[in-house]
Structures are given as structure tokens and as C-alpha cells.
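Minutes, project check-in
Item: structure for the 164-residue chain
Input as provided by the requester:
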Amino acid sequence: MNKSKEARRSSSIKEQFTEKELKDLRTAFELCDRNRDGEVTRGEFKIMLNNLGIDLKDDVLKELMNNASHDGSEVIDENDFLNWVKQIQNLRPVLKADSCEDLLAAFKVFDLNKDGYITKDELKTAMETIGEVATDDQIDDFIVKADRDKDGKINYEEFVKMLS
């Protein structure tokens, strides 16, 4: 793709997100991009999904990656990722029926002591358990962003707001 087409493709999708959303999505993309080459391969995406306990058949994963990629390959760049997220966001009204159960299940993964809160230590332990390395600064940043009542931990409502 030539540079002017790439620039148009880049700017048009990025305009559809807030600065905060873009920052968060870049962080998510970087977590998938294990070798930091600016692209996520099917293998890298599979590792991330497996770390989250999601096991997809190779043909399903191949189809997902081909559909997400702007050129139909099995590699997605940041712009492909952003377009993919936007498509998923547009499905949200369709997904709402099951989303409460899914969010509660996700919350329970992080609430290790089952007290109704996610602490910094629980978040760090859960991230390590799923194979995602997060620095203390990244963990602190997430807690600060999510913790609306400023008690130093994340309750279910804050967790839901952070993810939606």
C-alpha cells in the first residue's frame, strides 16, 4: 500500500475513537504484538487468546485474521486492529444479552479472593496467570483509570464501566 493510502486509512479510523480509547487500544495491540514489530500474526493472536483461556480452531482463527486484515492476509497492523474493534463495538447492541454474564465471569477471574473487589495485587497476579506481563506502572495506571470512587480497588461497577 502506498504511503498516502496508508495515511488516509490510518487517520480515518483513528478519528472514530477518543484519545483515551486510542491509548487503551494501542496498549491492547501492543500486548498482542509479542515481538513488537507493529503487526500481530495469527500465532501471536492465538497465544493471547490461549492465555485468556480461549481455544479457537485454527480454521476459525485463520478466518478471523483474514477478515480483520486490510489485505486479507493473516497479519493485522494497528489500523486493522482499530477497524476490527470498531466493527465489534458496532455489534454491541446485539451482544448485550450475554454481556452481563460475560462481564461477571471476567470480573471473577480477577477477583481472586472473591471479596467483590480487584486489588492491584489481584490484577497483577491474574495478568501473570494468563501470561500477560504488565509493569507496576501499567497496573497502577489501570487501577487509577478504573477506580472511580478512589478507594484503591476496583468494584464490579467500575470494572464494567472501564470495559464498556
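Outcome recorded: The mean pLDDT is 83.
No further action items on this chain.
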